[in-house]
Design brief:
single chain; 222 residues; alpha/beta; Rossmann fold; 7 helices; 10 strands; 34% helix
Amino acid sequence: MIELTNVSKIYDLGPVKVTGLDDISFNCEKGEMVSIMGASGSGKSTMMNIVGCLDRPTEGVYRLDGEDVAKLADDQLAAIRNEKLGFVFQSYNLLPKVSALQNVELPLIYAGGNHRHQKAMEALEAVGLSNRAIHKPQEMSGGEKQRVAIARALINNPKVILADEPTGNLDTTTSHSIMSLFTDLNKKGITIVIVTHEEDIAAYTHRTIYIRDGKIIEDKKR
C-alpha cells in the first residue's frame, strides 16, 4: 500500500541545506497498522508529510497503492489525498463554530459529494458519536473531538488513515479508547500509520519504525 524507496528530503535554506530524510526505504502492506517513533527533529513528521502527499521527496520513489505519486502535479496530489487518505491530527483541526456533523461533512463539501448528511451521520455512528451530532466542539471532551476528527477522516472511505500524535492531547484512559477505535478500524481493512512518542500507544500497532536523524534505525515487529 505504501512504498518508499531511497527517499530523501532536503530543505534548501539558502546557504544551509537541512536533511529531513536521508535515503530511507519503507514498505507498509495493505491492512497493516504501523507506528512511527522518534525524537523531535528526527524526521518522522517529514516522513508522514511525504506519505500523506503533503510534500514531495527531493530524491527517491514513493508509490501509494501501486501508483508513483512523487512527481504528480498539485491537483493530482489533492485528488489522491481526498480519495485514498484520511488525516487525524493531535489538535483535532475542527471548525469551532459548526456542529460535529458539519465538521464531518467538510471533505464531501470540498469534493462535491452527494448525500453528505447521511454519510456524515454514518461516520459519526461508526465512532460512537451519533448522539452528539448537533454539538459544537466546545461542548465536547477531548476524546469526543478526536472521534469527530476520526469520523471526518473516514467520510470518503479512505484506504489509509494517517494519524499524527492522535492521543497527544488526551489523558491515558481516553488515549487507549481512541487506540481501541483505531484497532477496530484496522480490523475492517483500513491501513493505519500513526506518529507517536508513546511506547504504550505504539504497542497497539503491528510494527514500529524508529527514526533518528532522518534515518530508519529500527523496524520492530510485534
